[in-house]
Input
Amino acid sequence: MRRVIKASAALAATAALIIPGAAAQAQLNTADTEITFTLLSGPLTITAPIVASLLQDAAGEPTVSGLIPLVTVSDLRVGSTPWTTTAAVNDFVAVLGEGTDTIGKDKVTYTPTLVVPVGATVANSGPVTLNTTKNVVWTTNVSLLTNVTTWTGNIAVDVSAASSLNPYTSTLTHSVA
Output
Protein backbone atom coordinates (compact mmCIF):
# COMPACT_ATOMS: atom_id res chain seq x y z
CA MET A 1 0.00 0.00 0.00
CA ARG A 2 2.93 2.27 0.75
CA ARG A 3 4.25 1.74 -2.72
CA VAL A 4 0.92 2.84 -4.24
CA ILE A 5 0.91 6.00 -2.13
CA LYS A 6 4.55 6.76 -3.01
CA ALA A 7 3.86 6.16 -6.71
CA SER A 8 0.78 8.36 -6.55
CA ALA A 9 2.73 11.11 -4.81
CA ALA A 10 5.52 10.89 -7.38
CA LEU A 11 3.03 10.99 -10.23
CA ALA A 12 1.30 14.01 -8.72
CA ALA A 13 4.63 15.82 -8.30
CA THR A 14 5.62 15.08 -11.90
CA ALA A 15 2.23 16.23 -13.20
CA ALA A 16 2.57 19.45 -11.22
CA LEU A 17 5.81 20.15 -13.03
CA ILE A 18 4.61 19.10 -16.49
CA ILE A 19 1.14 20.70 -16.59
CA PRO A 20 2.24 24.29 -15.80
CA GLY A 21 4.96 23.88 -18.40
CA ALA A 22 2.36 22.66 -20.92
CA ALA A 23 0.11 25.64 -20.12
CA ALA A 24 3.05 28.00 -20.57
CA GLN A 25 3.95 26.31 -23.85
CA ALA A 26 0.33 26.64 -25.06
CA GLN A 27 0.49 30.37 -24.33
CA LEU A 28 3.64 30.66 -26.42
CA ASN A 29 1.94 28.83 -29.33
CA THR A 30 -1.04 31.20 -29.56
CA ALA A 31 -1.49 34.90 -30.08
CA ASP A 32 -4.73 36.84 -29.65
CA THR A 33 -5.67 39.78 -31.85
CA GLU A 34 -8.43 42.17 -30.85
CA ILE A 35 -10.43 43.14 -33.94
CA THR A 36 -12.30 46.44 -34.05
CA PHE A 37 -14.20 48.35 -36.70
CA THR A 38 -16.28 51.50 -37.03
CA LEU A 39 -19.32 51.78 -39.25
CA LEU A 40 -19.19 55.05 -41.11
CA SER A 41 -22.47 56.79 -41.58
CA GLY A 42 -23.16 58.83 -44.69
CA PRO A 43 -25.90 61.22 -45.68
CA LEU A 44 -29.46 60.79 -46.84
CA THR A 45 -29.67 62.63 -50.17
CA ILE A 46 -32.03 63.15 -53.09
CA THR A 47 -31.23 64.23 -56.63
CA ALA A 48 -33.52 65.16 -59.49
CA PRO A 49 -33.08 66.73 -62.91
CA ILE A 50 -32.66 70.49 -63.02
CA VAL A 51 -35.04 71.00 -65.95
CA ALA A 52 -37.94 69.05 -67.40
CA SER A 53 -40.29 69.99 -70.21
CA LEU A 54 -43.93 69.09 -70.53
CA LEU A 55 -45.60 68.60 -73.89
CA GLN A 56 -49.14 68.85 -75.13
CA ASP A 57 -50.16 65.72 -77.03
CA ALA A 58 -52.05 67.75 -79.65
CA ALA A 59 -53.29 71.28 -80.09
CA GLY A 60 -56.39 71.87 -78.03
CA GLU A 61 -55.76 68.93 -75.66
CA PRO A 62 -56.64 69.88 -72.06
CA THR A 63 -53.50 68.27 -70.56
CA VAL A 64 -49.75 68.69 -70.91
CA SER A 65 -47.50 66.00 -69.48
CA GLY A 66 -43.94 64.79 -69.27
CA LEU A 67 -41.41 62.79 -67.28
CA ILE A 68 -39.10 63.80 -64.49
CA PRO A 69 -36.40 61.18 -65.16
CA LEU A 70 -34.32 59.51 -62.50
CA VAL A 71 -35.18 60.96 -59.16
CA THR A 72 -32.73 59.18 -56.83
CA VAL A 73 -32.65 58.76 -53.07
CA SER A 74 -29.32 57.55 -51.65
CA ASP A 75 -29.45 56.51 -48.03
CA LEU A 76 -25.91 55.95 -46.78
CA ARG A 77 -26.86 56.18 -43.12
CA VAL A 78 -26.06 53.09 -41.10
CA GLY A 79 -29.04 51.21 -39.79
CA SER A 80 -32.59 50.63 -40.79
CA THR A 81 -34.00 54.14 -40.49
CA PRO A 82 -36.92 54.62 -42.88
CA TRP A 83 -37.22 57.59 -45.22
CA THR A 84 -40.05 59.35 -47.05
CA THR A 85 -39.89 61.58 -50.11
CA THR A 86 -42.33 64.35 -50.81
CA ALA A 87 -43.17 66.38 -53.89
CA ALA A 88 -44.47 69.93 -53.98
CA VAL A 89 -45.03 72.32 -56.86
CA ASN A 90 -45.69 76.04 -57.22
CA ASP A 91 -48.47 77.45 -59.38
CA PHE A 92 -47.52 77.64 -63.07
CA VAL A 93 -47.07 81.26 -64.13
CA ALA A 94 -47.14 82.59 -67.71
CA VAL A 95 -43.66 83.66 -68.78
CA LEU A 96 -44.85 86.26 -71.32
CA GLY A 97 -47.31 89.05 -70.71
CA GLU A 98 -48.17 90.59 -67.41
CA GLY A 99 -47.57 87.43 -65.40
CA THR A 100 -51.10 87.35 -64.01
CA ASP A 101 -52.03 84.22 -65.96
CA THR A 102 -51.51 81.24 -63.66
CA ILE A 103 -52.45 77.59 -63.57
CA GLY A 104 -52.92 76.48 -59.98
CA LYS A 105 -50.91 73.68 -58.43
CA ASP A 106 -54.21 71.94 -57.77
CA LYS A 107 -54.22 71.16 -61.50
CA VAL A 108 -50.94 69.21 -61.27
CA THR A 109 -50.85 65.41 -60.90
CA TYR A 110 -47.65 63.57 -59.95
CA THR A 111 -47.25 59.82 -60.46
CA PRO A 112 -44.07 57.98 -59.43
CA THR A 113 -43.38 55.26 -62.01
CA LEU A 114 -40.62 52.75 -62.70
CA VAL A 115 -39.59 52.65 -59.03
CA VAL A 116 -36.38 50.60 -58.61
CA PRO A 117 -35.20 50.02 -55.04
CA VAL A 118 -31.89 48.41 -54.04
CA GLY A 119 -31.48 47.47 -50.39
CA ALA A 120 -34.98 48.47 -49.31
CA THR A 121 -38.61 47.74 -49.97
CA VAL A 122 -40.50 50.84 -51.01
CA ALA A 123 -44.05 51.91 -51.70
CA ASN A 124 -45.38 54.79 -53.74
CA SER A 125 -48.43 56.97 -53.68
CA GLY A 126 -49.67 56.35 -57.20
CA PRO A 127 -51.17 59.48 -58.80
CA VAL A 128 -51.50 62.44 -56.40
CA THR A 129 -52.69 65.99 -56.94
CA LEU A 130 -49.99 68.39 -55.76
CA ASN A 131 -52.34 71.00 -54.28
CA THR A 132 -50.23 70.53 -51.12
CA THR A 133 -46.96 68.74 -50.39
CA LYS A 134 -47.54 64.99 -50.81
CA ASN A 135 -45.64 61.84 -49.87
CA VAL A 136 -44.69 60.09 -53.12
CA VAL A 137 -42.16 57.30 -52.36
CA TRP A 138 -41.18 55.83 -48.98
CA THR A 139 -39.46 52.82 -47.45
CA THR A 140 -41.51 50.05 -45.92
CA ASN A 141 -38.50 47.90 -45.01
CA VAL A 142 -34.78 48.65 -45.09
CA SER A 143 -32.84 45.42 -45.61
CA LEU A 144 -29.25 46.62 -46.12
CA LEU A 145 -27.12 49.07 -44.21
CA THR A 146 -27.36 51.45 -47.18
CA ASN A 147 -29.93 51.69 -49.94
CA VAL A 148 -30.61 53.52 -53.19
CA THR A 149 -33.96 53.99 -54.92
CA THR A 150 -34.63 55.60 -58.30
CA TRP A 151 -37.85 56.39 -60.09
CA THR A 152 -39.35 58.47 -62.82
CA GLY A 153 -42.01 61.01 -61.96
CA ASN A 154 -44.81 61.58 -64.44
CA ILE A 155 -46.27 65.09 -64.31
CA ALA A 156 -49.61 65.99 -65.87
CA VAL A 157 -51.12 69.49 -65.80
CA ASP A 158 -54.74 70.27 -66.59
CA VAL A 159 -54.49 73.38 -68.79
CA SER A 160 -58.18 73.69 -69.63
CA ALA A 161 -58.44 76.86 -67.51
CA ALA A 162 -55.38 78.56 -69.04
CA SER A 163 -56.34 81.93 -70.47
CA SER A 164 -53.41 82.53 -72.83
CA LEU A 165 -51.16 80.67 -75.24
CA ASN A 166 -47.99 81.35 -73.27
CA PRO A 167 -45.10 79.30 -72.03
CA TYR A 168 -45.61 78.58 -68.33
CA THR A 169 -43.07 77.85 -65.63
CA SER A 170 -43.10 76.37 -62.14
CA THR A 171 -40.77 74.63 -59.70
CA LEU A 172 -41.22 71.04 -58.57
CA THR A 173 -39.43 70.31 -55.28
CA HIS A 174 -38.56 66.78 -54.15
CA SER A 175 -37.52 66.36 -50.52
CA VAL A 176 -36.45 63.38 -48.42
CA ALA A 177 -36.40 62.91 -44.66
